[in-house]
Amino acid sequence: MTSLVDMHKANGKGKQDDGGATQILVGHSWQGTRLATHLSSLAKITYSQDLGVVDFYPSDQLAVLFINEADLIAGNSYKRRAVKFRQITNLQRGVVMAQKTGFTSEQYSKLQKFVSIELGLAVIPVKAVEEAAQLLANMAMCEAKTNFNPFRVRRKKSNIPDQLVLSTMEQVPGLGGVRATALLEKFGSIQGVAAAGEKAMAEVVGIGPARVVHKFFHVPPI
């Protein structure tokens, strides 16, 4: 059976064509949607019926699951998709993109905790499908530059997951980039921060922020 990575390579996704357009593999169910239409104006896209739960592949090394406003409002039905997504992306990198609006703030908070703590995936909030399309195009472009720069010194991990994990941490109330970075450096991951005691976090970011962060991870929203 041909793997998604092999299929990606065969189609040249995550690369740039001769015209310089970044290419993205898109789930067939997105054909005709506003998101796909906008994305097609930013990057070259190819639809596939073989992506399963994955919605987008900005590159053969990065998979994206998109949870829209309606899915969040509907309740916890997204959890099954997220779990399946985590299972099939354990050999690659997975990112969850969710639509955070005035109607979904509470639901987004629940999703963020579930996906970040229990599944260990980065979560990125977007307000509109146009923003999501722009972010996907940026991901693909960044991946293409990273993967095909002959002068790049290869590191153990690409900087993209680190940026996405940091972006997820910055969504926690009381944290900005500096404090989020400090906590990740100290505890190693979002799961590590969630498992840390309030006193241990206070040594890194101070008592007030530590209390807010600890409450975020351990007190369910009303």
Automatic annotation (TrEMBL):
One of its GO terms (molecular function) is chromatin binding. Residues 1-18 have a biased composition (Basic and acidic residues). GO terms for biological process: interstrand cross-link repair. InterPro entries: FAAP24, PND, RuvA_2-like. One of its GO terms (cellular component) is Fanconi anaemia nuclear complex. PANTHER family: FANCONI ANEMIA CORE COMPLEX-ASSOCIATED PROTEIN 24. Residues 1-20 are annotated as: Disordered. Pfam families: HHH_5 (PF14520), PND (PF17949). Gene3D superfamilies: 3.40.50.10130, 5' to 3' exonuclease, C-terminal subdomain (1.10.150.20). Residues 23-139 form the Fanconi anemia core complex-associated protein 24 pseudonuclease domain. It comes from Petrolisthes manimaculis. This is Fanconi anemia core complex-associated protein 24 pseudonuclease domain-containing protein. It comes from the Eukaryota.
